[in-house]
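[audit] Reproducing an earlier prediction to check determinism. Same input, same settings, fresh worker. If the tokens differ from the archived copy the diff job will pick it up downstream; this log only records the rerun itself.
[audit] input (244 residues):
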Amino acid sequence: MTVPARGGLEDVTVAILAGGKGTRLQSVVSDRPKPLAEVADRPFLAYQLEQLAAAGARRVLLCTGYLGEQVKATFGSSYAGMSLDYSLEPAALGTAGAVRYALSRLTSDPVMVMNGDSYCDADLAAFWQFHCAQQADASVLLAQVDQADRYGQVLLDGRQRVAAFREKAASQGAGWINAGIYLVAHRLLEAIPDGRAVSLEREIFPTWVGGRFYGHRCHARFIDIGTPESYALAASFLAARRTA
């Protein structure tokens, strides 16, 4: 049974997608899963957890896969006042498949979903308030970057609903990108196909376009650690992160 989330993130279960192998990063981080890559002598995941704690979150489910036992051994059952639980996927299930596999442990409605290899220095409480004000079924946090060619862009209509996803292309210039943080109604997660690999970005999100699927533009810095080049920038980026 899901519990409706009311006041803020204290009632929201947060699922962090921490199961990817990080193939592009393995030339510099080969002995651990990508969310445990060290940034200034700390696991990258620690910064995400601290961001959630500062926003009032109380319960986090870590969706693990590749070397997932290392994540559990590193963080245990609690961190920064939050309870931590784990869902170890039996095989690579993709971003949507991992959430669907863990569905019975996602006990709030809506659920917050975060990518475990990126950080957006956003006000997560403000994102929650936006989602509630729009009476959205799903919301995606958007960040503006100078070069969107690596990510693709998210286009909104005049009501801030997601209108389209523009594929990655060279010379796109500045644009609004998917920052890897979502709020999603439980019933939409229940509709994800079970028992196979499924991608949120490629297979699920396009089917929500035209519905109550909103984009929240936030003027906040964004970084991912998916490549050796971006990973090398993470320490200086996180040193200047939002602390409240």
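[audit] rerun output stored. Observation attached for the diff report: The mean pLDDT is 93.
[audit] end
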